[in-house]
Design brief:
heterodimer, A: alpha+beta, 6-stranded mixed β-sheet, 23% helix, 34% strand, B: MetI-like fold, 14 helices, 2 strands
């Protein structure tokens, strides 16, 4: 609709939240969400993402800082005065009202008399025209979720806030609703801020993702950028899987850094290293499992020159259709993960086999070795469970 | 699993009985005490009273069932003012209970925090004393020279209530106001408890959702909280109105001959005048009247539609 104005910008400046019991849910935070974008706040439970969302909605008062919507400061405005609507985690549909009245609720409160046409159009948009006179408890989870979206969207908010809206749905329905929400967002052009703990959900839906951890934004960027260039071990481990190797800076070779890891050498483009690289300093070298090729040790001579290589032994392999996932026991990293596409399968690659792992140095990233190597692993596992 | 396999094999049953038959009877066995209770203490007395209400005769000659339904008509035409008074006093007490009880129940359910249990105990605490003693205490509270009457007098409130016909002269005792106060006080917990239960069940996020959808706090109450608390309002008003309409203790202790309710009439007929047929007929009329009113009320409030 209107992409030129900035009335749908959300600007958080130095916003923080400390509860009465002394727990700080959100550390001072600056964040700007541009008009019309699909923005995701991603993090494990308790990372402060929902509190941030509730401060934008006005359901929680920030301890410090300000909230701006466009040019208007709304920090102290009660929720009913903010041009913002929320899709709640468990939908919070009014059980005593039918679907029509649930959707019409916001319009009626603003004194709009003839709501019939608008409500019917909105119910068509979310494909619930037939259900208008049913009560919420007569609908399935997916339908209730769509009512919650319709009830918020009908008010044409400047910003739509979604608090884990798909959390209660089963996997298949969740995938379907992700696409549905993305379609609706493109159609109406409203700023969406989506809170989720599901990294796949955040990556499929959002233009920009902010990864939150312990009340702070760890990193902010497009899904591809976050995945390819994580700045911290938390992001590297929470978003997908990363193999991290402790290495020591050896020499610099043009734009590349040469590192020593175990007995071998690894090459890392300097541009992809977020850590200081003084000679002799420690760096964590990372590579994603799908970037790695696996060659049997007998064929090691056939590997092209200039690739990073590591030797190891297959500890475990599991066939999952499109790919095979290997766990490699290597001197530099005890559980090295490799995802190999099932194109030409080498029958010798079974547990116990000696192998060489190799990859294009351009796919290597470097992280500061001062942080915990396994940050974010537990959180990612908890969410997968 | 291990525990199951290690368990010794069950001894083979000596005779093969269909195991279900006994299981099917269990619910009835469980119902038995309740049913017996109802038969002995409800059904039989009801039948006995019903037969009493159509008897004629006198104490000396004994009463006989003569199907004398005219007793009903006579009772009604003679005591309709007391019926009317019962209904209006009970209605006034119910409305007062609702007005006093709703804010308190709301406070306990949403705002009391860690004081919640303490306030609940305070609500129930009066039950530790007998109904009679609590009502007698109101005699002291509303005593002619007591502080309450003085204050009401000084604030000229008694002039207003006199004008409304609720009080007479400088007194509160022995007036309709005293009886309604007593009824309100005695039945208030029966209003608060169901209200609290239904308010407490309301999901707090619904309030947030209403606020998010532009409802001001009072609109949220009107459109979300109150409709959702209707089951509590209905059961609370019934639990107050029904016993209040049949009550005679409050009218007896706090009222005068001008505030006699139908309960007082029934009591007098049964225990002093010993006119059993009239007393029984009055009881049945009261029961029927309450049944009709309650049915109408439940239909009207349409709570069967609520979750």
């Amino acid at each position: 609709m209107t992409t030129t104005d900035n009335s749908g910008d959300v600007r958080l400046s130095g916003i923080s939240k400390t509860y009465d019991n002394g727990f700080t849910a959100v550390q001072p935070l600056d964040l700007t969400v541009p008009q019309g974008s699909f923005f995701a706040l991603l993090g494990a439970s308790g990372c402060g993402k929902t509190t941030t969302l509730r401060m934008i909605a006005g359901l929680e008062e920030p301890t410090t800082g300000t909230v701006h919507l466009g040019d208007q400061e709304v920090t102290r405005l009660p929720p009913y005065k903010r041009p913002v609507n929320t899709v709640f985690q468990s939908y919070a549909l009014f059980p005593h009202l039918d679907i029509f009245e649930n959707v019409a609720f916001g319009l009626r409160r603003r004194g709009i008399k003839s709501v019939k046409k608008q409500v019917e159009e909105m119910l068509e948009l979310v494909q619930l025209g037939e259900q208008a006179r049913k009560k919420p408890h007569q609908l399935s989870g997916g339908q209730q979720q769509r009512v919650a979206v319709a009830r918020a969207l009908i008010n044409h908010p400047k910003v739509l806030l979604l608090d884990e809206p798909l959390g209660a749905l089963d996997l298949k329905l969740r995938r379907q609703m992700q696409l549905e929400l993305k379609r609706i967002q493109t159609e109406v052009g409203i700023t969406f801020i989506h809170v989720t703990h599901d990294q796949e959900e955040a990556m499929t839906m959002a233009d920009t993702v902010a990864v939150m951890n312990a009340g702070r934004v760890e990193q902010l960027g497009s899904p591809a950028d976050l995945y390819e260039n994580p700045n911290t071990t938390f992001v590297a481990n929470f978003l997908g899987t990363s193999n991290l190797i402790e290495a020591e800076v050896d020499t610099k070779n043009g734009d590349d850094i040469v590192l020593k890891a175990g007995g071998g050498k690894l090459v890392l483009p300097e541009a992809r290293c977020s850590a200081p690289t003084t000679t002799g300093g420690k760096v964590l070298v990372g590579v994603r499992p799908e970037k790695i090729s696996l060659t049997h040790a007998d064929d090691a001579g056939e590997i092209a020159e200039g690739r990073n290589r590591i030797t190891g032994k297959i500890a475990d392999s599991s066939f999952i259709g499109v790919s095979t996932q290997y766990v490699i026991d290597s001197p530099v990293c005890p559980e090295f993960e490799v995802y190999a596409q099932n194109i030409d399968r080498d029958a010798r690659l079974v547990p116990g086999a000696e192998v060489v792992l190799h990859w294009n140095p351009a796919h290597t990233f470097g992280l500061d070795a001062a942080q915990a190597i396994d940050a974010g692993v537990a959180e990612a596992e908890e969410d997968a469970a | 699993m291990a525990a199951v396999t290690e368990a010794p094999p069950l001894a083979p049953a000596p005779e093969k009985k269909p195991p279900r038959k006994r299981g099917r009877l269990v619910p009835y066995w469980l119902l038995l005490p309740g049913i017996l209770w109802l038969i002995v203490f409800f059904a039989l007395p009801m039948i006995y009273q019903a037969s009493t209400s159509v008897q004629t005769g006198s104490l000396e000659e004994g009463y006989k069932v003569t199907w004398h339904f005219a007793t009903y008509w006579d009772a009604l035409s003679q005591y309709w003012p007391q019926f009317l008074r019962s209904v209006s006093y009970a209605a006034a007490a119910t409305v007062l209970c609702l007005l006093l009880g709703y804010p308190l129940a709301y406070l306990i359910a949403f705002r009391a925090g860690r004081w919640r249990n303490l306030i609940m105990v305070l609500v129930i605490a009066p039950f530790f004393t007998s109904f009679l003693i609590r009502t007698l205490a109101w005699k002291t509270i509303l005593a002619d020279n007591g502080p309450v009457v003085h204050t009401l007098n000084n604030l000229h409130i008694l002039e207003l209530t006199n004008w409304l016909g609720w009080t007479a002269g400088d007194r509160v005792l022995a007036t309709p106001l005293a009886v309604v106060c007593g009824l309100t006080y005695n039945f208030l917990p029966f209003m608060i408890l169901p209200l609290y239960t239904s308010l407490e069940r309301i999901d707090g996020r619904l309030h947030e959702a209403a606020g998010d959808l532009y409802a001001k706090p009072f609109t949220t109450f009107r459109k979300v909280t109150f409709p959702l608390s209707m089951p509590g309002v209905v059961s609370g008003t019934l639990l107050t109105f029904i016993p209040a309409a049949g009550d005679y203790v409050n009218a007896d202790l706090l009222g005068s001959t001008d505030t006699r309710m139908v309960g007082n009439v029934i009591q007098t007929q049964f225990l002093r005048i010993l006119d059993y047929p009239t007393a029984a007929a009055l009881s049945f009329i009261l029961m029927a009247a309450i049944l009709v009113m309650v049915t109408f009320y439940i239909r009207k409030s349409g709570t069967e539609d609520l979750v």
